[in-house]
Amino acid sequence: MTHEKPEAGGAAASHSSLQGKTALVTGAARRVGAVIARTLHAAGANLVLHYRSSADDATALAQELNGLRPASAALAECDLLEIASLPALVDTAIKEFGGLDILVNNASTFYPTPLGDITEMDWDDLIGTNLKAPLFLAQAAATRLHEAKGLIVNLADIHGVKPLRRYPVYSIAKGGLIMLTRSLARELGPHVRVNAVAPGPVMWPEDGVDRALQEKITQRTALKRAGSAEDVARACLFFATGAPYVTGQVLAVDGGRSIGW
Question: How many CB atoms lie within 10 A of CB 68?
């Protein structure tokens, strides 16, 4: 679950720890995905920016990144629920930058599905974007990531461990993504590392959350404050640059929310 408005710009100071590397970030046009993209780019990576419907935002982000470093960002439009089209995202990385080193499965749908009102469409959408697409995209990218001794980072959720009331399908999907992370770490090792970042109160949903509820959630964290998209992006950067012996792990970025349940 992600909350609070992201800060502008990348989380990392400009350096070249990812120079020559290529990252594919799904759902990169806006919100957390855009901040992750900026952060990896600031560390030197080339970016394939996936989007589905946010073409204007994706184009603006690509122009921003290419303005900072020419020919360093490319766009890739795709509906992740169309599984047959997923290999084309990997092909974009190969065509534009010659390889793929990092896959960030960030794209997600999030909305309530109270028991009694759940539809098959809800199931297909929430499981599809949060679990099915990451699996099949990882499968499509596996050969290239193997060649690069690369990395997959999945954006999970603390509610993949402790279910969120009124969001059972979303919680199931994120729980599955956590197990997918561990399974892929075994399947793709030793050449590919696979980890997950599990945000807590980091970015409030765009359709709004009551201020009293925001405060209640924030007070349940050990740090008594919400985080930012930058915090999530820094965790992704850590897995990409500072954790060569870490795989199959889930890092909670939640201000201690999960320990004070």
Answer: 14
